[in-house]
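Hypothesis: this fold can be encoded by more than one sequence.
Test: take the structure tokens below, design a sequence, compare later.
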């Protein structure tokens, strides 16, 4: 039987060829709570008209709350349709989060949320699988759980445990490849596949190609760039020159819709290294990236982060500009870079 690594290698020409995307087929279900769309929108044909366009996802936090509520209350048919709608979209919320984020975190809760014992989430997953037999999203959640369990064995000093871990990862990968083609054409499938392939030992040669294919297909999805940064990081054998080169190229790739903001957004993924001055980031590019990012997503948190980094860079002009956009009661210390909080920066600025 071919290994997951071998099957992925055969899959790559398909995933990189720009095959047309298709939304996963969502089961017919009743309207969402509060949904005012006509009943005809939920029939077998699901007409693609303006009146039938999803309008239940106005912003990231509301979307995450609504989807989690569907899951937590056991409305799995509705959850299935919600994840299919979100999973087929490449839109970005005004806060900068993507709809992939909402899908990913909803599935990840089954193995990351520690508010209840693991048995609670196992029971919910079993209920979901029973309510929607063959659900690709429930199967993806199960693969994510399997990957996390495998990572525990990968850290073991015992060769037998590491072998079991690798076998579990291979099995998780094969289950991914058994999902329908329309699901394999979604961003969430690529994200889960990348996370599984990353942990294969030795590292799968297909990983860079999978990452590149995902960035080509979904150029505004920050998570795929972030996963690439993980591979280029000095802790994984990379170097800061390669990180800078990649971030410059990623910024060019996304500049038509995002301006220069990806330069800043990607370096903020390396927050600790950035704060310690380890990277080769160029402040003038960071400054422009902050301005383009804030122009598109003027959140209170982002304005605080900008002020803090302007202080870190000792750029008075940028610091004054950033602080000028904040009222006194809008200065939030937890948003500021460690060692460059509001009080310390105020003392520096007053010299």
């Amino acid at each position: 039987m071919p290994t997951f690594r071998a099957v992925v290698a055969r899959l790559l020409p398909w995933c990189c060829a720009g095959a047309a995307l298709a939304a996963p087929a969502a089961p017919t279900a009743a309207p969402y709570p509060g949904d005012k769309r006509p009943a005809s929108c939920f029939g077998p044909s699901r007409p693609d008209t303006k009146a039938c366009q999803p309008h239940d996802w106005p912003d990231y936090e509301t979307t995450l709350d609504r989807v989690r509520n569907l899951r937590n209350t056991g409305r799995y048919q509705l959850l299935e349709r919600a994840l299919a709608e979100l999973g087929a979209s490449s839109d970005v919320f005004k806060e900068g989060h993507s709809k992939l984020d909402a899908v990913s975190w909803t599935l990840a809760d089954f193995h990351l949320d520690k508010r209840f014992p693991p048995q609670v989430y196992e029971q919910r997953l079993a209920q979901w699988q029973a309510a929607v037999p063959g659900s690709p999203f429930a199967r993806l959640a199960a693969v994510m759980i399997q990957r996390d369990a495998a990572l525990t064995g990968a850290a073991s000093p015992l060769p037998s445990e590491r072998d079991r871990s690798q076998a579990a990862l291979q099995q998780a990968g094969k289950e991914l490849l058994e999902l329908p083609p329309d699901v394999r054409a979604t961003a969430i499938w690529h994200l889960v596949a990348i996370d599984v392939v990353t942990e294969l030992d030795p590292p799968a040669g297909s990983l860079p190609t999978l990452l590149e294919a995902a960035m080509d297909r979904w150029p505004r999805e920050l998570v795929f760039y972030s996963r690439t940064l993980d591979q280029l990081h000095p802790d994984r054998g990379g170097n800061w020159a390669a990180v800078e080169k990649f971030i410059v190229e990623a910024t060019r790739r996304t500049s038509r819709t995002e301006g220069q903001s990806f330069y800043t957004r990607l370096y903020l993924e390396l927050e600790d290294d950035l704060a310690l001055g380890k990277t080769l980031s160029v402040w003038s590019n960071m400054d422009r990236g902050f301005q383009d990012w804030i122009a598109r997503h003027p959140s209170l948190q982002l304005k605080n982060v900008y002020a803090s980094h302007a202080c870190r860079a000792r750029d008075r002009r940028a610091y004054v500009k950033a602080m000028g956009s904040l009222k006194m009661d809008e200065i939030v210390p937890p948003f500021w870079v460690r060692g460059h909080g509001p009080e310390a920066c105020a003392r520096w600025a007053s010299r």
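The CA atoms of residues 127 and 133 lie 10 Å apart. Confidence is low (pLDDT under 50) at residues 13-28.
Hypothesis status: open.
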